[in-house]
Design goal:
about 120 residues, mainly alpha, single chain
């Protein structure tokens, strides 16, 4: 899905590349058996796609969201959240996931307060 998003759905081409890097690094960490590293990368990607989910509009004023279309954010954010939850479930009980069950910095209260 990401490769099919138009450049106009991103704040800059550099942010598009950085976002793709988060995803590639997460996939690489999973392949290397490092779920906690993958979780961190997915959390960083979620932080760049959550304005519409949290506030109904992209957070471009503070340059937090790199995807500027709410339609695109909805798809990407849902996929990332699902991947994060799957990794956290897999790592629960192994001591490799984050202790709060939602990932570091990804509680609803923390998310609302950062905007």
């Amino acid at each position: 899905y990401m490769s099919g998003l138009p450049s106009g759905d991103f704040t800059t081409d550099g942010n598009r590349n950085a976002f793709g890097n988060f995803l590639r690094q997460a996939a690489s960490a999973i392949q290397k058996g490092k779920p906690s590293s993958a979780i961190k990368k997915i959390e960083k990607a979620i932080e760049r796609t959550d304005g519409c989910a949290l506030n109904g509009t992209p957070d471009t004023h503070n340059k937090r969201d790199w995807i500027t279309s709410c339609d695109a954010q909805a798809v990407v954010h849902a996929c990332l959240t699902e991947a994060l939850e799957a990794l956290q479930s897999e790592t629960a009980g192994t001591g490799q996931g984050h202790s709060n069950g939602r990932g570091k910095g990804h509680s609803k209260n923390n998310h609302k307060n950062r905007h």
